[in-house]
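Something for you to look into today, if you have time. I want to see for myself how the chain folds. Leave the record below and I will have a look.
***
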Amino acid sequence: MNSSEVAELSKRGPWLGLPPRHVGFAAALLLAAGGLSAGWVSLGTQQRKWIFQATPVPAASADELAQGARAEAMESVWIDHVSASTGRPIRLHALYAAHPDPNAPLMLFLHGARQYLGGSVFRIEQMRELGFAVLAIDYRGFGASTDELPSEAGVIEDAGAAWRWLGERHPDRPRYLFGHSLGGAVAVQLGARLADVPAEAAPAGVIIEGTFTSIRDMFSTFRWGWLPVSMLITERFDSLAAVPRIKAPLLIVHGSADSLVPSRFGRLLYEHATAARRFVLIEGGTHSTTSWRGAAQYREALREFFGLGAAPAAAAEKT
């Protein structure tokens, strides 16, 4: 299969029986299975393009971004760090949604593939309504952040830089990690890396919604998932291997009607976790509607499991 055939394959989503977001990645792996003359570097590049589907926005001035943030009662902020994986400086654009309560817990919000801050405002607002002050970032390659092709290593670095930014500015407030979909996979990896840091730098809790167990397992749900291409996947996001290393209390939320990331993946993550954890299944929740369909269940879980939003609950215990 040559590159022109792959391009044609990517246009034929209905024939493959895959949603458009799946087709490119499936085509890339099919091409790899048949032999890729350009080599492993090209394979990795294509996978990164199709997994992240990074969504940049047209160039805008800092004033324009700040004005747009203020319209949403949020603050436009910038986070600078040097990427350990590339050695290059990275500038991340972020939105900070302060909470009326100056002592409200903090949340680092990590969005999924194809998303960017402009399309995540409603989710950020939902989390603020649940009682958090929220920092949401665009990884490199997304939104107005540094225009660089993201990678698994790179987005985890970006999330880590944002985590440090929150801690430096609000050292006395508890911090929570939240990730939706691919952002949940980033949160799992970062949560595992923060397992043994000093208490003041560790998450008070990790919350993931609609998250998969690994890219390999996601590929297995596609029509061509029977192909033996595991060894060709370079961006693995192996959450099933990482989740046992998380020591912070872990809340896993999934929609029963999530056709993109089946709820069995959330259940598997729950079963493999070793920290205190809870699994919440939102009946009728899809990949994009679970957070608002399950708002009451979210609030109840935050209160009972983390002691948030009401009088402190008893210490979370492994269930």
